[in-house]
Design goal:
Strand order of the largest sheet: 18-19-20-21-22-23-24-25-26-27-28-30-31-32-33-35
CATH class of the largest domain: Mainly Beta
Largest sheet: 16 strands, antiparallel
Radius of gyration: 36 Å
CATH superfamily of the largest domain: membrane protein fhac: a member of the omp85/tpsb transporter family
Strand content: over 45%
Shape: globular
Number of domains: 6
CATH topology of the largest domain: Porin
Number of strands: 35
Distance between the termini: 101 Å
Length: 776
């Protein structure tokens, strides 16, 4: 009796029952053991496992010999075995002191192929599907893979793709699986509509969002692909735009995409509620932290009274105050803006409240989602690291810096509780985007290189290291050749210093009577002073060669004969440039100021000895938000003085059509009677322009018209052997004209037609000009 009791305690009473398990779309009736109480078995017997092997079956069981198990363990073991995908039927029973597992093996995948795909390569599709060679064949997995393939095609604008499968039995329980793909036509975007907008035109808002209407260049940009996530990002761009232009109550009511299956095109409609426009009211800084004087922080405030309300100005002010207070020994200080709306006057007063935040430290910074960009490239944009005091505004600054890099489609920074109450985990979620580009440019200069074509390859995040590299080559119809290589390391030696070099070489027909070659390099280091101000120190070296045939040599003026006789020439100099930049968009600016000043000293060896200073400034202002009319005014100036002796021709300033349209390159200023340009020691230019969308042209083509007026002068001469030179006085030149700017996929290209209204008889004019638009 005692022996029988021991046996019952060890094995327990088992009754066989059936269970219904749903796997995929099929319901499978399996046999399982219902255990009245905890049981123990001495061994596990596996039956039916051929290819898979008994050990694989046992490893997926939760039941182990010598350990008690229950009915729940049997159910979980059955689920585990089905989850492997290797079995079409599973049953578990108890026989004496043994657990018996009966399995029936399913079919295995021998090979996976893709048929009909041209737009997406086999390798990419194979990496995205779950069905793999030597893996189990599972219909649920197949259905999931079909949807994955459809999603991949939808991401490139082919939402009407169809995907089916074919299987081929190759024996021994193996199948070949073929995904048959009919790619269909590209799904395009026919219309993008805005409802409820009154302050800004449809065209202005269409320029803000990333989704674009389909046009003849869409195959290059791929910006006419509908994607729900992309639409959400467009909503965020609209909110950001309105919040920064005074509309603090703006909201996106809805964003809808409707597919016309007959034409396979989408119509996208954004419905918005703009609300009222606000200016900043009274702005002040308050502090409850002992030792923090609000008066000393007032200069950091960018949200000034009377200025159009801007959420970006508020954010920048918070960041600047938080950084300043933290640097003065208050790392836990918190900056909170408090708004005071005056609905009668449409103003928002802002008080920046500084108080002592909770004492919390950063336990760690986790980087997620970066498949290409390396972790340290992301971490170095933070002014804080593990172990530092947690400061929310410095986190916001890091987010803005990461977004400005252009490496990611999205940047999201969140926090999670750490291992202790005063510890915080900062989680950075990013999504990499392509950062390489191929560019093609063209330009035309009469009397010189003629038509110039240039091709370039540019990578802003080289090998995921955040490094910039650009290789370019160009050729002209008059035999000109150009080559260049640029490289920049944005964090040299771990500091916020952008160090790099430029190498260049060019050959051209410098004039009617001589050929010109130059080659050289620049070594540079750029350091930020503030968020908008930076300075660059550089060493510059250039070698120049002048050549002329004997017949052409006789037609050259004395200064140019000297250039040929003493060729080659070298110039070695150091320079410093300070740049102030608040431009909102460097490609198509609407607001902001760009200004720079450069000091250069030559004489560290070489044939040049001079001091040179030059500068330029340009301001943009939106005259009409609704009509998207943008005005700009700008000016440039420069002066060069010899440091002992005379200047060379190549030391003096040369200006022309780039600065005063309507003239050739080097088309104005001092020159010899035979027409050889000498350049000048001093120049001043000014320009005014208004740009606007071309009427009747779809805004997605990025075509804008412009009217402009330029004026300036180039005078002075310190070149030896230039007796008889004309144009050394400061006579004014001026021109007016019309232009077209095209924001093409290859960069902004500009076409200008200008008519000089003030000029000298010896000046060289050129009415038509086109080339890469470079406003800075």
């Amino acid at each position: 009796m005692k022996a029988g009791s021991k046996f019952l305690n060890a094995v327990s009473a088992v009754a066989l029952s059936t269970s219904l398990v749903v796997t995929g779309t099929a319901a499978v009736v399996i046999a399982s053991a219902t255990v009245a109480e905890a049981a123990v078995v001495k061994n596990i017997v596996v039956r039916g496992a051929g290819r898979v092997g008994a050990d694989t079956v046992r490893s997926n069981l939760t039941i182990k010999p010598g350990k008690s198990f229950s009915n729940a363990d049997i159910d979980q073991s059955i689920k585990n075995l089905y989850a492997t995908g290797y079995f079409s039927n599973v049953s578990i029973s108890v026989s004496g002191s043994s657990l018996v597992v009966n399995v029936a093996e399913g079919q295995l995948v021998n090979q996976v192929v893709f048929n009909g795909n041209r737009k997406i390569k086999d390798e990419k599709l194979a990496a995205s599907v779950q069905t793999k060679p030597l893996g189990p064949y599972n219909q649920v997995m197949i259905e999931s893979d079909i949807q994955t393939i459809k999603d991949a095609y939808a991401s490139i604008g082919r939402s009407d793709v169809t995907v089916t499968t074919q299987t081929f039995d190759v024996g021994e329980g193996r199948l070949n699986v073929a995904f048959v793909i009919n790619e269909g036509d590209r799904t395009k975007i026919d219309q993008i509509n805005f409802v409820g907008n009154h302050a800004f035109s449809d065209g202005r808002l269409a320029a803000i969002i990333n989704t674009k209407k389909s046009n003849f260049l869409s195959f290059l940009t791929r910006r006419d692909v509908y994607n729900p996530d992309k639409l959400k990002a467009d909503e965020a761009e609209l909110r950001k735009f309105y919040y920064n232009h005074g509309y603090a109550d703006f909201r996106v009511v809805s964003s809808d995409a409707v597919l016309d299956e007959a034409s396979n095109t989408y119509t996208i409609t954004f419905t918005v509620d703009e609300g009222e426009k606000y200016n900043f009211g009274a702005v002040n800084v308050e502090s409850s932290v002992e030792g923090v004087d609000p008066a000393t922080l007032q200069s950091l405030v960018e949200s000034r009274s009377g200025k159009t309300y801007s959420a970006d100005d508020v954010q920048k002010t918070m960041e600047a105050i938080a950084a300043k207070v933290a640097s003065e020994g208050y790392p836990f200080a918190r900056v909170t803006p408090r708004g005071d709306r005056d609905f009668a006057n449409n103003t928002i007063g802002v008080s920046y409240l500084i108080d002592q935040g909770e004492r919390a430290y950063i336990e760690r910074i986790e980087i997620r989602g970066n498949t290409r960009t390396r972790d340290y490239v992301i971490r170095r944009e933070f002014d804080i690291s593990e172990g530092d005091a947690f400061n929310r505004e410095l986190i916001s600054r890091a987010k803005r810096r990461l977004e400005a890099l252009g490496y990611f489609t999205s940047v999201d920074i969140t926090t999670q509780p750490g291992s202790e109450p005063d510890r915080v985990v900062v989680v950075v979620n990013v999504e990499d985007q392509p950062t390489g580009s191929f560019g093609v440019g063209a330009g035309y200069a009469a009397g010189g290189d003629g038509v110039m074509l240039e091709a370039s390859i540019e990578e802003k995040n080289f090998l995921g290291r955040g490094q910039y590299i650009k290789v370019a080559a160009g050729a002209g119809t008059q035999g000109a050749r150009t080559y260049s290589l640029s490289f920049t390391e944005p964090y040299f030696l771990g500091y916020r210093l952008a160090a790099g070099f430029d190498i260049f070489k060019s050959e051209s027909n410098g004039g009617d009577n001589y050929d010109y070659q130059e080659q050289g390099f620049t070594l540079r280091v750029t350091a930020p002073i503030t968020e908008d101000l930076k300075t660059t120190f550089a060493y510059n070296f250039k070698q120049m060669k002048y050549d002329a045939s004997s017949s052409d040599y006789a037609d050259l003026s004395q200064p140019y004969q000297d250039l040929v006789d003493k060729s080659p020439w070298t110039k070695s100099s150091i320079s410093n440039t300070i740049v102030y930049n608040t431009i909102d968009d460097m490609q198509m600016p609407h607001e902001g100021i760009y200004a720079s000043v450069t000091n250069e000293v030559a004489g560290l060896g070489g044939d040049s000895q001079f001091y040179k200073i030059s500068g330029k400034a340009k301001m943009f202002y939106t005259v009409s938000d609704y009509a998207d009319v943008v005005a700009s005014i700008g000016g440039t100036a420069g002066y060069v003085a010899p440091l002992g002796g005379n200047l060379n021709v190549f030391d003096q300033f040369q200006i022309g059509g780039k600065e005063i349209r309507g003239f050739e390159n080097n088309g104005i200023g001092p020159r010899m009677p035979n027409g050889d340009a000498l350049g000048g020691t001093t120049y001043i230019t000014a320009s005014a322009e208004a740009s606007f969308p071309l009427p009747g042209i779809p805004t997605d083509l990025n075509l804008r018209g412009a009217v402009f007026a330029d004026a300036g002068t180039l005078f002075g001469n310190e070149v030896s052997g230039a007796s008889g030179a004309e144009g050394t006085n400061a006579s004014l030149r001026a021109s007016v004209g019309l232009g077209i700017v095209w924001g093409s996929p290859f960069g902004a290209i500009r076409f200008d037609y200008a008519v000089p209204v003030l000029k000298e008889d010896f000046d060289k004019t050129q009415n038509f000009r086109f080339g890469i638009a470079n406003q800075f």
